[in-house]
Design brief:
Helix content: 55-70%
CATH superfamily of the largest domain: OmpA-like domain
Number of helices: 4
CATH class of the largest domain: Alpha Beta
Strand order of the largest sheet: 2-1-3
Order of helices and strands: HHHEHEE
Distance between the termini: 24 Å
Shape: elongated
Radius of gyration: 23 Å
CATH architecture of the largest domain: 2-Layer Sandwich
Structural class: alpha+beta
Largest sheet: 3 strands, mixed
Number of strands: 3
Length: 175
C-alpha cells in the first residue's frame, strides 16, 4: 500500500507541476502584438512543455523500475521454483507471488513470466515449462492482476547454462 501511495503521489506531483508550469506560461502573454514576442513565447511554451513531458517520462520510468526492484526483492528472498517434473506451486511460491502482485498493483505495467523446464523429451520439457508459466499467471490473476497484463514465455531445455530450469523469472515491461 505504501508503494502505491508513493507512485500516486509522484504522478500527482508531476501532473500538478505540469498544470502550474503551463498555466504560468499561458499567463505571461504580453499583448504588445509583436511577432518577435509571440515567437519567443511560443519557443518558451514548447521548451516548458518538453521539460514537463521529460519529467513525467522520467518519473514513470522510475516507478516502473521501482516495481521491478520490488519484484526482484521478493523473488530474491524466496524464488518461484518448482520440484523437478512438477508445475505445482507450494506455500512459499504462493507467498512470493502475493508479493509480486502487490508490487504490480502500483502501476499498469505488464509482466513477462519466463518459465523453464528440463526433460529428456524436449516436447515434454516445453509443455512443463508452459504449465509452470500458466500456474504462475493463474496465481497472479487470483491475486487481482488483470490477465491482459501478464505474458507467459516458456522454454524447455534452455540453452543458457545460467538458467535454473526449475525457476521462473519476471520482467516488467511497459507494453
Amino acid at each position: 500500500m505504501k508503494r502505491t501511495t508513493t507512485v500516486r503521489r509522484i504522478t500527482a506531483a508531476a501532473a500538478a507541476a505540469a498544470v502550474v508550469t503551463l498555466g504560468a506560461a499561458a499567463c505571461t502573454n504580453d499583448d504588445s502584438g509583436s511577432q518577435e514576442t509571440t515567437t519567443t513565447e511560443a519557443a518558451e511554451d514548447q521548451s516548458t512543455t518538453d521539460a514537463v513531458q521529460s519529467t513525467v517520462t522520467s518519473l514513470t520510468e522510475q516507478a516502473g523500475n521501482a516495481v521491478q526492484d520490488a519484484i526482484n526483492s521478493a523473488v530474491g528472498a524466496a524464488p518461484v521454483s518448482f520440484d523437478a517434473n512438477s508445475a505445482e506451486l507450494g506455500t512459499l511460491q504462493n507467498a512470493t507471488l502475493t508479493a509480486v502482485a502487490a508490487a504490480l498493483e502500483t502501476n499498469e505495467d505488464k509482466l513477462e513470466i519466463k518459465a523453464y523446464a528440463m526433460d529428456e523429451d524436449s516436447s515434454a520439457a516445453d509443455d512443463l515449462a508452459q504449465e509452470r508459466g500458466e500456474a504462475v499467471k493463474s496465481k497472479l490473476v487470483e491475486e487481482g492482476i488483470s490477465e491482459d497484463r501478464l505474458d507467459v514465455s516458456s522454454e524447455g531445455n534452455p540453452d543458457d547454462s545460467d538458467v535454473d530450469p526449475n525457476r521462473v523469472d519476471f520482467e516488467v515491461t511497459s507494453e
